[in-house]
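pasting Alpha/beta fold hydrolase for the record, 312 residues
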Amino acid sequence: MRPRVVYVHGNGNKVRPELLKSQWDTALFGRDMAEASHMAYWAPLQYENPLPDFRPDPLDGGQMDIEESPEPVEFEAPGEFVARTLDEARSEAGDIAPESPEPTPGTGRIGDALGDWLSEMTYLADTLAESEETGVGPQIPLEALPLPRSARKAVFRTLVKHTFKDVHAYFFGGAGAAIRDVVREALDDLDGAPVAVVGHSLGSIVAYEVLAEQEREVELFVTVGSPLAITEVQDHLVKPPAVPAGVMAWRNASDLRDLVALDHTLRPEYAPTELVTDLLVTNDSRNHHGISQYLENPDVREPFQRMYNRLA
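structre below
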């Protein structure tokens, strides 16, 4: 029987499902896969209308208006940005999240359940924006963004803010169960075909939790730009970190500059470790998190090609 691929998209609003699926197909396989692939499309649960066709998605590194402005842009201090983003996330979650104590003086760290991750993302974002422009700071052996520092900072902070708010909504805002239902339905429609699952960003968390619950046989599980290695995320998974029963191989790919991934190795926490392969790849989207750039990478594509050649 011909293999099937289920995609689980990540944070933020998306274009209509047919177009989004075709974009992922083209990036991963070089063509539209028709009935051989399925998009677990949960965006309508959080957003009233899809993005216009072919509008750049800022959470996938799409172009931002600030890049066109020649004027310098002032940004609030990282601690202030963290506190405001955390407050907005809690407000949108309907105050379901636990109350946060005051920030630790001088650190900007917030005592929310995911606040430490938010703080780390924010400070790393600002550090990358500075170091990629000036060459001062951590030496990252990958190509820098072709943007001025103010644009880089805006791109990174957009990614930080919206990613955190969606993950917060998933764990604390009552959105998690309905999003997981979308993935379950996509998997249930496959009629026993060999399965590969691809999860991007928050989608990797959703896919992981559904697979851990169902213990369904999956030939290949691929996560890209995933926060599953981050302690604050692991603390809120329904089951303790482990390779889901039934998953035969798990590949986890990330760019060192991807703020959502932040921690790039799953193997130490997800046993049995021989089933997990962590890959450092280059993602040259503007925020180093874009899905197309991940799926086009040869190391991400290769196991799908091998699977389809063997089973098709």
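Confidence is low (pLDDT under 50) at residues 64-71, 95-111, 135-145.
DSSP finds nine helices and six strands in the chain.
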